[in-house]
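Mods, move this if it's the wrong board.
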Amino acid sequence: MGRNTRKNRIRKEIFARHLSMVEDRISIGDFDEASRLLEALKLQGCSGSHLFELSKRLAEASKLCSCWYCGFTPEQKKRVAVDAEKKAAVLGGTYANHDNNWIGGYAEAVFGARFNLPLDFEPGPDGGIDFSIFCSHTPSGILTIDVKGTKYIEFRLAGIERSWEDARGWGYDENFIRRRDHIYVLIVTRSEHAFFKGFAFGTDEFAIRFPRFPGARPGYSPKRLRLMSSWF
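Not the wrong board. Structure tokens:
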């Protein structure tokens, strides 16, 4: 009896993780993968209200893309195309990875078009500040913004160069801008699509994330991402 109970608990935990993966896939517009995962779960005997709701969400979401870019006017899309190309070229003068430069430049261009903010095209590192706006809700009266573009689902900030032993004991990179009037914004890109996943204040709690590949640096991500409704 105990063995069956343990087996059922493990099975439920696996289903829950896979359902969470489906939610993530839907949230970034990867409807084909979300559909594949849902079908696999059904074949494995997964059922229940969560599965039903996700199937319903997938059917509705796949009819209309909910990303920021697809909601833009033709003028905004033209602006994104021009600004993304220029920003990627600027980043190319500092960073060697062409793909990362394009994704980062595109994410900034989308954010700029979404809120009608000018991009910084000055060469060289920007100190972690992509945008700066007046904001009466912050102590300084200014809100600074660091936009992070990625093709992955998770939020990741590059870690510092440390040995594994040291890295395990650090929850923050001392180079982070850890202020209440600074935010990190995550935008997930897929081709021209750009999905806003959330943001975190510099004072929010971050956790260490170890790299996917040998030799890569550790990264850091917020323990929770905020949505627009919790902006202030």
